[in-house]
Task: structure prediction
Amino acid sequence: MWQLIYENSPWPEKPKLSRNLVSAVHSFLSVALLTTRHPIKYEIIVLNSVSYFIWDLIYMFRYRMEPMFVYHHLVTIWMFLSDLEKSLICEAFFYAELSNMFTYPIYHLMQNKIECKKLKFFQSIWFSYFRIYKFSQFFKYFEYSFLFYNLFVMYIFGIYWSCLQVKKLII
Result:
């Protein structure tokens, strides 16, 4: 599915926009699935997201290695396949994907050289709220384990990415 979206993007001559479209579809679909009430919802969410992260890993190995995203994807796949409480995974993943809602449209505008400073400011606050504040509330549910420490590293990534967004607004 992800490769079909990529290959049939309206911007075949712009691979960054095509990949951004795939990421946006995954994120929007994840949020939609996480807000529905359906008995097989968890399995669909896992299939949707694990398949996307595997597709994106293959893309990175083929075209452009991004170590932080490789780590992020592998830990997220591990989280989905772990024995953690499904509702906890769904809630954390919902906030993670919700934090990205404005990232993809703003990236598209930036790639097309369209000024969006006010949107970037809003997006920085939005992203930081979910990735720093909301995620900090999940640590009380995790026992200290190898997965806990890896999820904590991803939390630090969220702080780092939030700081990068703010820095770009200032400079």
In short: Residues 146-170 form the longest helix (25 residues). The CA atoms of residues 4 and 22 lie 9 Å apart. The mean pLDDT is 88.
